Amino acid sequence: MTQQPQPEPEKVKQTVAKMREVCRQFDSLNFALDELIAQIEADIRNSPLTAYRLGRAKSVPHPAESES
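^ that's the sequence the OP posted. Answer follows.
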């Protein structure tokens, strides 16, 4: 078997630093997306259309209820 050449320590440090930066960017993006999702969910909850649909859903009897 032949031995694999050892990577240069400086190259390893650079690669690790780049990977940490990429992870930090992904964490930042995930946080931003979580905030956006929360805002959209709040908009949906406060929407007049949602209130209308929820009110309509409560007033329409379910099939299981009307069979009794």
